[in-house]
What we know:
Elements: H1 3-20, H2 26-42, H3 49-75
Helix pairs in contact: 1-2, 1-3
Domain Complex 1 LYR protein: 7-64
Family: Belongs to the complex I LYR family.
Pfam family, one: Complex1_LYR
Amino acid sequence: MAASSRAQVLDLYRAMLRESKRFGAYSYRTYAIRRIRDAFRENKNVKDPAEIQALVNKAKRDLGIIRRQVHIGQMYSTDKLVIENQEKPRA
């Protein structure tokens, strides 16, 4: 993989993770992060430049979807789950 292509993929990976961490709903957030990591790990050994470009284009579309869903989720936000509100006990 060319250096510029590798940098582009890493930037895209970071952007997808960063945007997924903005999901308000815990289940969506953890699912998105897990799927992104799994997909990138699954395709890390791809060598064909055409296939790499197709995967990059798909990831860019998916990033747009994630951004839209985050915005929609912010418009219709809900209360946090019990698992998210765990505070450290005061001593």
